[in-house]
Design goal:
281 residues, Arc Repressor Mutant, subunit A, four-stranded mixed beta sheet, binds acetyl coenzyme *A, 32% helix, binds zinc ion, alpha+beta, Wheat Germ Agglutinin (Isolectin 2), domain 1, DNA damage, transcription, single chain
């Protein structure tokens, strides 16, 4: 006895081709029904329009002039850029993007109404254009202080540190707004893994550099993380100790050793100085 919503969740698309990558779909996404019967769906990597044959995509590419996401480029450092796109002004683009991202997101309701969101699309530039790696969406106004609604790294680019860059960027925006923030709940398994990794790395980094006393509130101001996310993270790395009637933060040796090891990994970092952005009132 399945409910209608469960039935509609059965994966409908098998594979998609985006740019030069062929990717297997993970979950249901509400593409028009006839696309569910195709072996593979062809997606324009610049505007995310979708087609049933390679011929149709080819014809489309002849007319589609996009070589980067619409909207303002608000960040550029080396080959990495971020574009800010208003869901109200670029409805079609944002809907197409949501359709793609639903292929890899299980638990989120897909927002047909893209108006209340801004989309931050991350690209890597080469001689052909700015290729979308991933994005996150953000409510224009969040009553729950969410600073991110949905996050996705396209599967062909996952596990290379791009998700980390997206998360770091979402907190840079919060810092620029002078706000603290947290991602919308619930998080997926992969979302949780990525956030936990980012939170603990950032906090350990602050704690290692900051000799002396620092409070949870001060950590929150430095990072724009909520005190709740900070407390959970410190607990998970066993850094909260109760000593002489009060809580103290204390990193154990293994945590610090692992931190120094992780510094050797080559990573894309977000350069705050490369962000050219003012909070939209
Ligand atoms: N297994 C174990 N750890 C992982 C995994 C994984 N598959 N993926 C990420 N992590 C952890 C690791 O600690 C990793 O660091 P490491 O590679 O140095 O060990 C860290 O997260 C950062 O990984 P990135 O490479 O930066 O992340 P990625 O580019 O793969 O993107 C993301 C992460 C966005 C969650 C991606 O997995 C994704 O798009 N998943 C599908 C959509 C999704 O679930 N989105 C989150 C929904 S919740 C929300 O939207 C609020
Ligand atoms: Zn196109």
């Amino acid at each position: 006895t399945q409910s209608i919503s469960e039935i509609s969740r059965v994966k409908n698309l098998d594979r998609v081709i985006i740019g030069k990558h062929e990717v297997e779909a993970w979950y249901f996404s509400p593409y028009p029904e006839e696309f569910g019967h195709a072996d593979v769906v062809y997606i324009c990597e610049f505007c995310f329009s979708y087609f049933i044959s390679g011929k149709q995509l080819e014809r489309h590419r002849y007319h589609c002039t996009l070589t980067h996401p619409p909207g303002n480029e608000i960040y550029r450092h080396e080959d990495l850029s971020f574009f800010e796109i208003d869901g109200r002004r670029q409805k079609q683009y944002c809907r197409n993007l949501c359709l793609v991202s639903k292929l890899f997101l299980d638990h989120k309701t897909l927002y047909y109404d893209v108006d209340p969101f801004l989309f931050y699309v991350m690209t890597v530039t080469d001689e052909y254009g700015c290729h979308v790696i991933g994005y996150f969406s953000k409510e224009k106004e969040s009553l729950d202080n969410y600073n991110l609604a949905c996050i996705l790294t396209l599967p062909q680019y996952q596990r290379k540190g791009y998700g980390r860059a997206l998360i770091a960027f979402s907190y840079e925006l919060s810092k620029a707004e002078g706000k603290i923030g947290s991602p919308e709940k619930p998080l997926s398994d992969l979302g949780l893994l990525s956030y936990r990794a980012f939170w603990s790395e950032t906090l350990i980094d602050k704690l290692v550099q900051f000799k002396g006393e620092v409070s949870i509130d001060e950590l929150s101001q430095m990072t724009s993380f909520t005190t709740q996310d900070i407390l959970h993270t410190l607990q998970s790395i066993d850094a909260l100790k109760y000593y002489r009637g009060q809580h103290i933060i204390c990193l154990n040796e293994t945590v610090v050793e692992n931190y120094y090891k992780s510094l050797k990994k080559k990573r894309r970092t977000i350069m705050p100085s490369a962000l050219k952005w003012k909070p939209p009132h």
